[in-house]
Amino acid sequence: MLTLMIAIFVLGYIAIALEHPFKIDKAASALITGVLVWTLFVLSGADQHFIEEELLHHLSEISSILFFLLGAMTIVELVDAHEGFAIITDKIKTTNKVKLLWIISILTFFFSAALDNLTTSIVMISLLRKLIEDKHDRWFFAGIVVVAANAGGAWSPIGDVTTTMLWIGGQLSTMTIVKTLFIPSLVAMLVPLIVLTFTMKGEVDRPKKMEGLEHYTNPTTPFERNLIFFLGVAGLLFVPIFKTLTHLPPFMGMMLSLGVLWSVTEVIHRSKNKEDKSQLSVIGVLRKVDTASVLFFLGILLAVAGLQSAGHLAIMAGNLNEWFGGNVYAINVVIGLLSALVDNVPLVAGSMGMYEIAAVGDFAKDGVFWQFLAFCAGTGGSALIIGSAAGVAVMGLEKIDFVWYLKKISILALIGYFAGAGTYILMQSL
Predict the structure, then answer these.
(1) For residues 43 and 45, what is the distance between their CA atoms, to the nearest angstrom?
(2) H-type helices in 155-217, by residue range?
(3) Can you give the pTM of this predicted structure?
(4) What tens digit of pLDDT does each residue of 205-215 get?
(5) Under DSSP, is residue 83 helix (H, G, I), strand (E, B) or coil?
């Protein structure tokens, strides 16, 4: 049964990858995969009480991610409904693909460090929809957003969930993360951009503004636009601060920010008629939130959690240590590549469980192993669109085809990953 769990997991990933030829939504494939993995775990003869405890434990973690995602998506949609992103998009005048790619990538890289890679990806997709009309052009930019968001998240203690785990776990301190990983992360983003600078040509078409009659009869005022934009951004920035102060899960801060924004929109639109108010309220905006993406995320995380509880990921981590003779660079490079196939969170959790914090050496606090693990686990997932939370969110929001990403973005992401990894190793040898 345990072997069959892996087979079902692989088949589920194939179904997700071939969503368009099969004409079955990836959310359906992910949910079936997640449930079947746990069903086979139950049928394997393992202790029923243990399995229930494990499932509930993972569900609490998964739920916190899903509520975080739902809150972030709602805030972004609310800002979008008020045309708040025009504050940024109106300042981006260029339609040159290369120039626009550099602007979007740099914004994503630094936003990701300040917010986190998942929230930043959601925000940037909303911006891209305002800037690029053609679907495949937008897909390409969205793919680079995934690369830049994961690179930006790797050098910040709050930029990626795995870096946050190592930070909270005591393996890494804030200044060590920033000082040692900023340059490798920057290289991981810059190298693909430099390649594209010499290969990409042409202009993008801007979307035509479609404004209905209601836009003229009762538009959002500049004050409302600015207020909701800055409150939305402040709310997203507040999440890591709230987490640091209270040590509560990030979704709690996100829910608080959403509640405040919800209250403000109710107040500022209270005098408007019901029809106009509904378009600018959280209740109206929730209809636009892509629920299928949330369910897709649920299925994927359940499937990976099942493999983790069954011990498959711990066995894999142990094998890596044995195969590479404890070489910290080789182990971490492979962990980074594996995180493109399997969620990086359990891989990092498995590594944290395998190795204790030593007094001195590579495994000491702020040691080379933990530093390089943060970089590799954070950026390696960009190789596949299902390899990171940012990628999964972008895939869901833009309906990007798995195989399309594999053909167009994966090579660029791998070039950046190996360039960043090589930069880190070189820095350690100097």
Answers:
(1) 5
(2) 161-168, 174-199, 213-217
(3) 0.76
(4) 888 764 444 44
(5) coil
The answer to whether the Cα torsion of 317, 322, 324, 328 is positive or negative is positive
User: Residue 297: CA atoms inside 13 Å, Cβ hemisphere, count?
Assistant: 27
237 in a domain, yes or no? yes
Asked if 326 and 318 count as a contact pair (C-beta separation under 8 A), the reply is: no
Cβ(231)–Cβ(264) below 8 Å: yes
Look at the chain and report how many structural domains it folds into.
Answer: 1
Whats the size of the chain, residue-wise?
430
CA distances, 2 to each of 7, 35, 37, 57, 311 (Å): 9, 14, 9, 20, 9
The SS3 assignment for 354 reads helix
Residues 6+ apart with CB under 8 A from 198: none
Task: Output Rg (C-alpha) for the chain, integer angstroms.
Answer: 22
Cβ(269)–Cβ(281) below 8 Å:
yes
Mean pLDDT, the chain, integer:
85
What tokens does 84 get? 């708040």
pLDDT confidence bin for 219, thresholds 50/70/90: low
User: 245 to each of 238, 291, 294, 414, 429, how far by Cα in Å?
Assistant: 10, 31, 28, 37, 37
d(CA 247, CA 241): 10
Tell which residue, 345, 335, 360, has the closest CA to residue 301.
Answer: 345
Q: Pick from 22-31, 127-136, 256-265 the range whose average pLDDT is largest.
A: 256-265
In a domain, 120, yes or no: yes
What's the pLDDT score for residue 215?
Answer: 44
Instruction: Report whether 335 contacts 369 (CB < 8 A).
Output: no
The H or E element containing residue 101 is helix 97-114
Interhelix angle 389-398/117-131, rounded to 10 degrees, is 30
Residues 10 and 14: their CA atoms lie apart, in Å, by 6
- For residue 174, how far is the Cα from the chain centroid? 21
User: In the prediction, which pLDDT does 182 show?
Assistant: 95
Query: Does residue 355 sit within a domain?
Result: no
Instruction: Quickly tell me which residue has 């602007």 as its tokens.
Output: 103
23 within domain boundaries: no
State which residues form the domain around 236: 65-209+217-286
